[in-house]
Structure prediction request, 228 residues.
Amino acid sequence: DAGVIQSPRHEVTEMGQEVTLRCKPISGHNSLFWYRQTMMRGLELLIYFNNNVPIDDSGMPEDRFSAKMPNASFSTLKIQPSEPRDSAVYFCASSGGYLGQPQHFGDGTRLSIL
Amino acid sequence: AQSVTQLGSHVSVSEGALVLLRCNYSSSVPPYLFWYVQYPNQGLQLLLKYTSAATLVKGINGFEAEFKKSETSFHLTKPSAHMSDAAEYFCAVSEKTGANNLFFGTGTRLTVIP
Prediction:
């Protein structure tokens, strides 16, 4: 079975540019999570969706970040405008949505903002 | 809110030695508990999970963890370390009511010395 698919795997861009990260969750999963991982701050939950509806976006750093889930098989995380401090690895994860269900992670997008 | 403490951000063991990675949780109600492993340039992979069945949980790659309610602990062990076990390990908890997101510890980097 296909796991969580993220694209691109690597992104290098200049500050001020718009960045869009993409995620395809595991088919049948109805919860989707976006995380950011850095050496300084570790793994941070940015936002998560249940049944395509954002449930908790308290981890989104600021208004430059936005996330959407237009359908059950696709989600985007957008940064506009990007800044060097946004450089990190961004992970998407999905789960069955029930309490106690483990999350399954994609391989991440390594983002570098110059 | 839940919190997870992983004692020791770095642990080094010799190849063939016992691996012990510590995890304590904060809730008075035993939560669901998970261990994940992250290899370089990869996403997090589920090692094992505790969902209130047997207190000793066996996972992949020879790892196991024991849930101890009296100690609010869920330590991860492996009898004999292998070079391929070198990675970062994360403990995570999920509450039994409310939201289905995970709360992650700060991770423990395991080094295996030949």
Remarks:
- Chain B has no helices and twelve strands.
